[in-house]
Amino acid sequence: MKVSNQKLEEAIKNLDFKWLVRKEIKELPGILWENEIPEKAVQGVYQHKQGILVATNKRLIFIDKGFFSLTVEDFPYDKISSIQYTTGIIFGELTFYASGNKGKIGQVDKMAVRSFAEWVRNHIEQAKENETTNPQPSGGYSSPVEQLKQLAELKNQGILTEEEFQDQKKKILGS
Questions:
Q1: Smallest Cα–Cα separation from 82: which of 56, 101, 62?
Q2: Coil, strand or helix at 1
Q3: Is residue 74's pLDDT more than 80?
Q4: Of residues 104, 112, 109, 110, the one with CA closest to residue 87
Q5: Contact residues for 100 (Cβ-Cβ < 8 A; gap 6+)
Q6: Mean pLDDT, to the nearest integer, of 64-72?
Q7: Percentage helix, strand, coil, to 5, in the chain?
Q8: Which Pfam families does this UniProt record tie to the protein (predicted)?
Q9: Three-state secondary structure string covering 100-142
Q10: 69 alpha carbon, distance to own chain's centre
Q11: pTM (2 decimals)?
């Protein structure tokens, strides 16, 4: 299911951004994944490029739109290990570590840097919690009890017939 244009437009309107990054904001709908919603944004400099760092419900996205170029770099929350911030007299800086790499966004509005970092930190924690509560199956070596539970679920959903359920149950139990 794709996010509706109206919902996307509302989310973009709610972002706090300056007129300098309107080009980047116009590119955003084409960059977002299905069911992805922009929730926070800060303006800044990343790798000598002036752009916008957008926090969505799924990842961080840095966007820089030049006259003839478009730079997009994304960082899914489950790949970000930490984020920190510093503030100076006028600007702040965000630093995050993702997949062994260090990302720095400089010249961020001092008033926005802390709340943005805290918001991202919460999403990193949620991604870690989801990873531990919903671990990916490792090579299909689930216990017989787990396999039986999955079979029962498929039967209850009407995907397996009683006969198919019994056949698979015998295979799992080795009888």
A1: 101
A2: coil
A3: yes
A4: 110
A5: none
A6: 92
A7: 45, 30, 25
A8: bPH_3, SHOCT
A9: CEEEEEEEEEHHHHHHHHHHHHHHHHHHHHHHHHCCCCCCCCC
A10: 24
A11: 0.69
Tokens of 166: 């019994």
Residues near 13 by beta carbon (within 8 Å), at least 6 away in sequence: none
Q: Which residue has the tokens 């260090």?
A: 102
CA-CA-CA-CA torsion for 27, 71, 122, 36, nearest 10 degrees?
Answer: 40
Its sign, for the CA torsion 128, 117, 102, 86, is negative
pLDDT at 16 over 60: no
Of 64, 39, 71, the residue nearest 54 (C-alpha): 39
Residue 32 phi, psi dihedral angles, 5° rounding: -65, 145
- Higher per-residue confidence, 156 vs 140: 156
Beta bridge pairs of residue 95: 84, 104
